[in-house]
Specification:
The protein has 197 residues and is α/β, with parallel strands linked by helices. Helices cover 44% and strands 21% of the residues.
């Protein structure tokens, strides 16, 4: 498979994390993108493994130098995706999987579209939106997880409406109505884009 820059977005509860895990298990040539952040490490988190931990000044310098594919502020901390490790992975023949929200996906799309024709990141870019079969099913899944308060579930569902409204921005959309079928559709997209089908 030629190296791909795989960007996946979905509303909370659509099953994106499970699909990402299945891809990483089946395809050793796909590596997970490591983000950078200005927040402090938590628990056992390691620099360069879980995140690249940067000071606010370092983060701003990386932004100014164009070293990030995308960046955002979340809960007062800065987060971003460094371009360097993605390019290194491509140079080694590895694909890179990014699990990010629709705003981050749009930023990566703009970054890639600005690259010159023939650039490996531009040539290998594939963006996929994972959809629940319905908002009612999404609610059922979120409630079934038993992890969120009713208020949190309502917030997630409200956010999901905005995310679903942007699904048309993605080149591919996969409805996760049945995990195995959704995974097979996802797999087929990547094999076609990677030149194996």
């Amino acid at each position: 498979m030629k190296p791909l820059l795989i960007v996946m977005s979905a509303p909370s509860g659509a099953g994106k994390s499970t699909l990402c895990d299945l891809l990483l298990q089946e395809f050793p040539e796909i590596t997970y993108s490591i983000s950078c952040t200005t927040r402090a490490p938590r628990g056992e988190e390691e620099d360069g493994v879980d995140y690249f931990f940067l000071s606010p000044g370092e983060f701003e310098r990386w932004v100014a130098e164009g070293r990030l594919l995308e960046h955002a502020t979340v809960h007062g901390n800065r987060y971003g995706t460094p371009a360097g490790p993605v390019r290194e992975a491509f140079a080694e023949g590895q694909s890179v999987l990014m699990d990010i929200d629709v705003v981050g996906a749009a930023a990566v799309r703009r970054y890639v579209e600005a690259l010159p024709a023939g650039d490996p990141l531009r040539e290998g870019f594939v963006d996929i939106f994972i959809e629940p079969p319905s908002v009612a099913e999404l609610r059922r899944r979120l409630e079934g997880r038993g992890e969120d308060s009713p208020e949190s579930i309502e917030t997630r569902l409200k956010n999901a409406e905005g995310e679903l409204a942007r699904a048309h921005e993605f080149a591919y959309r996969v409805v996760n109505d049945d995990l195995r079928m959704a995974y097979n559709r996802l797999r087929d997209i990547l094999l076609v884009k990677g030149g194996e089908l």
